[in-house]
Amino acid sequence: xxxxxxxxxxxxxxxxxxxxxxxxxxxxxxxxxxxxxxxxxxxxxxxxxxxxxxxxxxxxxxxxxxxxxxxxxxxxxxxxxxxxxxxxxxxxxxxxxxxxxxxxxxxxxxxxxxxxxxxxxxxxxx
Length: 126
Known about the structure:
This protein has 126 residues and is mainly β. 0% of the residues lie in helices and 47% in strands. About 8% of the residues have low confidence.
């Protein structure tokens, strides 16, 4: 059995159910999760999104401070600047090492409000 994630959003449902997760209710950047580790450690981010209704653009990105003390940002979106049709999209699992005492933050932004649900889990690796 897997341990519980450090931070998480509701999981995506199976086909035929209503979407769950955080609904992006505006076109502004939305903080989906934020976590401050007490020590430097490895992490794994698992995320997905579902577009309902109309075709729209979606951006999902992660920021953290690496063990080198430098600020890091990675765009996890499969098609930057491209409108995507209504569908479920699983993002690639993303492993990274974060500096203790500094925030790990996941953001999302949609081109159209009330069309995108996002789910995510942040796991600390042993």
